[in-house]
Amino acid sequence: MLVAELERAVLRGEEAAGTSLILQELRHAIRAAGQPVDRVGDAERLFFAPLEPFLIEDAADHKRSGRIARVSLESIWAWLGRDLMPAEAKALSEDINRALYNDDRVKADQLTRALHDRAVMRIRETVTAVTGDDKARRRLAVQVGTPRALDDLATVAAVLANRDALAELTRRLPSQIRVLEREHVDIIMAWADMAASKKAPGTAAANNADLLLCGLTLVMGRLAAPWQLVRIATLAAETDDTARIAETPWAAAVTIALSEIEALVRELRVEHKAHRPITALLKAIHDAVRGVRTEMDLSVDSPWSRQLVHIRTEVSNLLRAEIESAPGHVRRLLRPRPVKEIAAGSLLDAIDVSDTEMLVEFVAACRNYASELAVSEATMRSFNELQHYLETGTKVLLDGMRHAGDADRPFRQSQIDAAIRFCRIVFGADYAGLLAKAAEIAIQAATAERKAARA
After folding, report:
1. In DSSP terms, which residues pair with 297 in a beta bridge?
2. CA distances in angstroms from 34 to 30, 31, 37, 308, 434, listed in the order given
3. DSSP 3-state of 228
4. How far apart are CA 245 and CA 4, in angstroms?
5. Which of 84, 179, 374, 430 has CA 20 to 30 A from 40's CA?
6. Which residues are paired to 55 by β-bridges?
């Protein structure tokens, strides 16, 4: 209700200070909630509405085939109204806003389509004019104001030029596709043939390629597992041979799928650097890599096989150092210490123990995905080291607990508690329970010995 009222105020020309910021935050909250909300909107929102399935909540400089960062739209809209077609954009935007204020949705849609058509024509003319002129291309990129300006303009023009065909594909497909089957591929291929046949004779091949790229990107947004987009290419080409697939228009499906896997790797790098849990991302990357390798024969050298090797190498380089560091972290915490090295009443640092526990969980999780992520050797070596050290080291810790005095007992108890947490991950809950019971027995034995000594 608040969004609708603020949008109506903007349409009336009564925008107050801070309205844009408030609307921005409210719209973000609506998108995050994932629930449909009736919106009044404005000319800008209606103009970019066909782009909604192609928008990503990502940095504007990240390359994603067939996608565009939502944060880039504001700069593109400003460029349209300032540099590309100021008079037309201003007049049509005012007419669209007036129609929306009067709740005349039909007229607003008609005016928006007219704005789309003019914008597509002018964008393509502008991009064509700077083709081959690096200085002009750089100047245009600065005017647009996004890190990937020319790519962003190409995506906007492609989607708007094919808005009707893409709307038809949206109607033909389920809203969510858990597993991409042959029947879905047949629908997509029939749609592509229909859309191509409706284009004017002599239409440039690049325009048909844009249509297919947009259509495949739209399909991917409905897939539960985006990597399954590759299946369209193999079923359409009726082969898993990469050379033969690459000769078909459906090769774009492979390009898009690999681009999405690269985006997952970028996200993995960010989350890993921020020390946030990455198990779900590891699983997503593992499943995607395995799926692509299953659908296509990548045993022979090809650009796609090299791209996948690069992806796996990047993940391996990112994870290997941390995987190999886990045994050292555990040894440092659980190392048996002589009494003179233990301050009276001290304990292991709780944050250090939690960080190490997360690291052990990370190594254990990597075991499930090691083969596809090219970290099998490092993961197995580190996990075996953890197993061996915990099996032998806990016995020493228990012996130390049996002979602990009042000063060092709290520290040795904290070491055993940490060991129990690590063992629960490596060996399971039963083993950890037995270790906890053994620790209780050791404490009881130490107490009995002290009582006997006093007696």
Report:
1. 241
2. 7, 5, 9, 33, 46
3. helix
4. 48
5. 84
6. 68
Nearest to 173 by CA among 217, 207, 213: 217
Which residue matches tokens 């459906």? Answer: 250
**How far apart, in whole angstroms, are the C-alpha atoms of residue 335 and residue 370?**
29
DSSP assignment letter at 178? S
pLDDT attached to residue 18: 75
Tokens 């079923």 belong to 235
Asked whether the beta carbons of 162 and 195 are under 8 A apart, the reply is: yes
Number of H helices, E strands in the chain: 20, 2
Mean of pLDDT values over 403-427: 91
pLDDT in tens, 214-263: 999 999 999 999 999 999 999 999 999 999 999 999 999 999 999 999 99
d(CA 53, CA 69) in angstroms, rounded, equals 11
81: its two tokens: 């109204």
pLDDT in tens, 291-342: 999 999 998 899 999 999 999 999 988 888 889 999 999 999 999 999 889 8
Q: What percent of the chain has pLDDT over 70?
A: 92
At residue 388, what is the residue type?
A: H
10 Å Cβ neighbour count for 86?
11
Sequence-distant (≥ 6) Cβ neighbours of residue 160 within 8 angstroms: 50, 51, 116, 119, 120
Mean pLDDT of the chain, nearest integer: 88
Closest CA to 272 of 311, 328, 307, 321: 321
pLDDT in tens, 431-445: 999 999 998 888 787
DSSP state letter for 280: H
CA dist 234 and 287 (Å) reads: 18
Residue 450 corresponds to which tokens in the numbers above?
A: 């002290």
Give me the phi and psi of 149, to 5 degrees please.
Answer: -60, -50
Please state the rounded mean pLDDT for residues 169-184. 94
> Binning pLDDT at 50, 70 and 90, where does residue 428 land?
very high
Q: How far apart are CA 396 and CA 399, in angstroms?
A: 5
SS3 content of the chain, % helix, strand, coil (to 5): 75, 0, 25
Amino acid found at 328? G
